[in-house]
């Protein structure tokens, strides 16, 4: 019975973890891509370079979202199904 | 602890709580769901007014662009309205699990339309500002705005899908029992996809806004800009997709 409560807590925190964890990376990546668009408008010939820099920057910004994903999956499959 | 679980399963009046949670979740869906669309459309209108002050001759184009942009920002509010109606008027069998599912559905749709509404408004506002600066660019700016707003609305669509699954869970023979883990995982799925949609909505709105701004300054780059916007927007959507996947796992894989 105590296991039920622990399981429920793990499942609730999995949802909260992925949900809140998704806010930051997405806003950050959006900001980067918005600035990349402005950059392309100023210097259209540099579009491939700007896209590459944008994607590298976004990949770093994405990392915390992936941490949330991993933790959420661990919470569900390791602690939430016992 | 044992007492708590037994007390929840046996002594709580779940039939009253089921009805109460229907009403509360309906209010939550529409109450939270109104914020994003309202703020976004207000921002859009504000930018359109600024642009009209700068270019009174372009009033017709500006009002048209503003209304198109606002109509799309409104969709997330309409999703919330639909889910609120479903929560209030569909019949549900009383159970502990359906209380979690209904509260989850309300939270998912309410929070899920927040980011999309504001994001679509950002795109529309920047498009209005661009048309005010450079009225000749209205065609390509409007196209970029519509594409960007479509991308902005997708987190609200993810939330809608999860909310509908949770509301119709009993038709799939789910949420009829009194298992604490399933109750909590339904609520958790709603929180996950709802909160998880805020960031992608806002982020994609920034991308779409930046793209509209840029196309207005340099309309000849519209094709390149669309490509950069879609690539950047797709990356910004990724965390919303993670939330969607986790919500699906919470609904369908937890037993």
Structural commentary:
The complex is a heterodimer of chains A (82) and B (255). Chain A is an all-alpha fold. In chain A, 89% of the residues lie in helices and 0% in strands. Chain A has a single domain, classed as F1F0 ATP synthase subunit C (F1FO ATP Synthase), CATH 1.20.20. In chain A, helix 1 (2-21) runs antiparallel to helix 3 (47-79) and helix 2 (23-42) runs antiparallel to helix 3 (47-79). The longest helix of chain A has 33 residues, at 47-79. Chain A is rod-shaped, with a radius of gyration of 19 Å. The N and C termini of chain A lie close together (12 Å). Chain B has 255 residues and is an all-alpha fold. Helices cover 85% and strands 0% of the residues of chain B. Chain B has helices at 2-10, 14-54, 59-89, 96-133, 138-167, 180-217, 222-252. The two termini of chain B are 21 Å apart. Classes of the chains: A mainly alpha (82), B mainly alpha (255). Chains A and B meet through helix 1, helix 2 and helix 3 of A and helix 1, helix 6 and helix 7 of B.
Features:
heterodimer; A: mainly alpha; F1FO ATP Synthase; rod-shaped; B: 255 residues; mainly alpha; Four Helix Bundle (Hemerythrin (Met), subunit A); 85% helix
In the CATH hierarchy, the architecture of chain B is Up-down Bundle
CATH class of chain A: Mainly Alpha
Q: How much of the polypeptide of chain B forms β-strand, as a percent range?
A: under 5%
Would you give the CATH topology of chain A? F1FO ATP Synthase
Extended strand count of chain B: 0
């Amino acid at each position: 019975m105590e296991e039920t409560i622990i399981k429920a807590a793990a499942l609730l925190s999995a949802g909260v973890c992925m949900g809140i964890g998704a806010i930051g990376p997405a806003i950050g990546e959006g900001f980067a891509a918005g600035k990349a668009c402005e950059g392309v408008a100023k210097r259209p010939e540099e579009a491939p370079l700007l896209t590459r820099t944008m994607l590298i920057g976004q990949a770093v910004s994405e990392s915390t979202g992936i941490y949330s994903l991993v933790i959420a999956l661990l919470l569900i499959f390791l602690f939430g199904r016992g | 602890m044992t007492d708590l679980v037994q007390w929840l399963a046996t002594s709580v009046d779940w039939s009253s709580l089921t009805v109460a949670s229907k009403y509360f979740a309906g209010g939550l869906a529409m109450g939270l769901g109104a914020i994003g669309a309202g703020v976004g459309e207000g921002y859009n209108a504000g930018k359109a007014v600024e642009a009209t002050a700068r270019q009174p001759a372009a009033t017709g184009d500006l009002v048209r662009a503003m209304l198109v942009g606002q109509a799309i920002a409104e969709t997330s509010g309409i999703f919330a309205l639909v889910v609120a109606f479903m929560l209030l008027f569909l019949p549900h069998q009383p159970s502990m699990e359906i209380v979690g599912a209904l509260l989850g559905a309300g939270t998912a749709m309410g929070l899920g339309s927040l980011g999309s509404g504001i994001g679509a408004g950002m795109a529309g506002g920047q498009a209005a500002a661009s048309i005010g600066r450079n009225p000749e660019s209205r065609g390509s700016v409007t196209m970029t705005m519509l594409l960007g707003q479509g991308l902005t609305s997708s987190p609200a669509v993810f939330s809608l899908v999860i909310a509908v699954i949770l509301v119709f869970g009993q038709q799939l023979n789910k949420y009829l029992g009194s298992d604490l883990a399933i109750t909590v995982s339904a609520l958790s799925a709603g929180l996950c996809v709802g909160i998880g949609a805020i960031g992608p909505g806002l982020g994609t709105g920034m991308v779409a806004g930046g793209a509209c701004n840029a196309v207005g300054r340099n309309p000849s780059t519209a094709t390149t800009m669309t490509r950069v916007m879609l690539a950047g927007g797709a990356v910004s959507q990724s965390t919303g997709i993670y939330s969607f996947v986790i919500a699906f796992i919470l609904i369908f894989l937890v037993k």
